[in-house]
Specification:
The structure is a single chain. Helices cover 57% and strands 6% of the residues. The chain is of the alpha+beta class and 577 residues long. Among the domains are: 2-53; 167-197 and 204-277; 500-577. A six-stranded antiparallel β-sheet has the order 2-3-4-5-1-6. Helix 1 packs antiparallel against helix 2 (25-39), helix 2 runs antiparallel to helix 3 and helix 22 (484-500) packs antiparallel against helix 23. The N and C termini lie far apart (104 Å).
Length: 577
Amino acid sequence: MVQDFADRSSELVREGWDHLRAGRPIAARACWQRAIQVDGSAAASKAIERLERSGDLPASARARYRLRAPADPSRRSAWDDRLGGTDLDGMADAFGRLAADDPTDASAWYNRAVVLAWLGSNREAISALDRVVAIEAATAPDHAVEAATLAELLRAGGGAETLADDLRFSCTIDGPTIDPDVLLAEFPTIRKIETPQAPGLDAAPEVQVFEWLDRLLPEAGTLAATALPVVLASLVIRPTGGLRLSSPRAETIEEAEEALLGRLGIGAESARREAAPLPLPFLDADVWTVRMTPGLDPAHADALRRDWVEHYYEDLWVRRPRQSLGGRTPLDTAEAAHRGDPEARARLTAVVAFREQLGQRPSARVLYQGYPFDRLRRRLGLAADDPDAVDPSDLSCAPAWELAALDPGSLDDHRLRDAVASAAGLRLDAITAPLADELLRRGLPTEGSIRIGAVGAIVRRAMAADDADKALVAIDQARTSADPATAEILGVWRAEILSRSGRPDEALATYQTMISADPRGAAIALEGGETLLDNGQADQALRLLHVARYLGGEWTVRRAIRWLSDLGDWPPPPSSS
């Protein structure tokens, strides 16, 4: 009998570790608690202690969950009748029957969810928690938020993969063997990094690993967080041919994939795309994709990290849809909450609380640098946990409806810059454009990304109204004092608008002023030629494609020649004698 208990205890300890590896820490703890009940397992006690001290798991993953008492005392006898002497499976069924008897019994639904989480049935637990949120959002918002926060954790675990919001995307491209030197020559923002290798292995790695940045690392000096590069995708070159891209953001991996397929001349059918949930310790992997310029003063680097987290959450993350918000973005959910939807408010509050837990992990402090998530709460119109943490008049994290109510002409220069940056980050052109018009009218200097966001709003609204001249005036105003990188982006926009507006010679001239004898110049020539072709302007396109053929690396030359051949301009005619 003693041996039977020991065997059962060991089995529960192993099962707990299996749950933890699958991202189900609540089920892991439940297994270890049961092992302790069987024979006082020291191994299980140590496992729980290790879980509670884990520095890379959010607080929700390390917490102990308890069942609720019935909200209605008159239901106590019914609960006792159904629950007496049952195991976990029986308890889950019993609470399910109690909830079916009274579908408004939020405590029964919550308890069913907790027991299912103990069993590792995350998908079914989330369904029960959704019922709790719907029932209690208006009458017991704190309980609704508690349930929604638990659901945030469970949707990241095994068994709930299709409900996960934080994913890693990958794209495998089959094709010829890639020469790394050619790759680096074609794309200057790709850089080689150390290949991960198993400890103790001295053999040369069979694959080569690279990071594809969205821009070159800026020089050390006075930097803004928005000027720092982020990783579009990690790239692995396989010795057998082809390569693999991966990223926690679908849009950036698509950008890298499109660029590669275009240069390699490979069709999209050669790419295999997959997505899988991120492990619990890496749910915020996207925040960590920023890269620092080497040699920065440590204090300056820390300040940039803090500013980057602010930009990430308040400008980027808020615009991404989440299944836990019914497929809406945090911004859209905030609008619903602002209009009086209590369920939207509860779910959004829970999502922010869970992200805050990720930022508070000991392993994350070096990046988050104490970022106050009350800024994000203000951005989304939620109540602050600490009313003194954020100035309620700070426009840099103001919600959309507050920015929409501003009178641009009445703002001083400082508040106008904050308002433009804030609105541009939200990508709400109807709000941004009037503020941006006032900014350009005053000729105020702004950091590059703010300038791009401000002008982008004006340009999109002008082009939607078929007013190319207004778009061009805004671009020319903004280019006057822009830094080189910003001026190049604005120049490309100018050329594209001129081409689209039927002014190909002016578009060609704009492209030509930006072309230089480096890989970026060849890329501008190639992309410009393709833009002109898209608008039926082959004569001007030919001139840029020949420049790309002359300046470009191997892949750019190959693509330019394909276009020239299609246009009947390759090979060149023999010279006359």
